[in-house]
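Bumping with the actual sequence this time:
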Amino acid sequence: MSGKSSGDNQRQARPPEGAPDVYRTLGTFAADEVVIKRSRFIGWGAPVRSEDEALAVLEQIRAEHAQATHNCYAYRVGFGVETVRFSDDGEPGGTAGKPILEVIQREDLRNVIIVVTRYFGGTLLGAGGLVRAYAQSAKMAVDAAGIVEMVRHARLAMELDYEWYGRLQYELQERGVIIETSDFGEKVSLTVLVRLEHAGGLIGAVRELTNGQVEPRLIDRPYRAIPV
């Protein structure tokens, strides 16, 4: 977790309990840094699924940067009943954790933690300077991690005779449906992903196109990360 870093964006995830059909979060773990009046600020951002995960990220950063002057943070986790925490970690009250949290809230991010590590460079920044520095570092972390919309999809399975495959494939492409798997045996077996709000329309279209011979079956309703 040092320097600029990033990881593979998890394109799908199991829906958190009570989650809406669409919410914004960070796309991956990432970091960026800036030097302000000889103080080094490193902003870290990560998507998390629980408060325990948020605290694990925080503890890992603290362990790797135990010599830092401050490791300030804010996180927002959960839906319905949210868990929101922030800390100035020894900086003057209201100059670090709250500005970080305000970046999270302004971007309307859920299930995220942002940590800003500071190595003091010998020059005092003053309250206003600290607020600006921590807000800037938090925003840099967001930009490095990237924002995604977690959009709930319907995963559908269908089995069809070959005579329907060409027309059905065209229909799926026209609707922007993602074909996850296809198996060509005695019949064609497909697994597809479609945005949840479009699932009913797709099911109706498949029934009509195949004269009721193909009945899509709902498997589950996963999220898919869409870059913003």
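The tokens above came from a reply further down the thread. Residues 2-12 have pLDDT under 50 and may be disordered.
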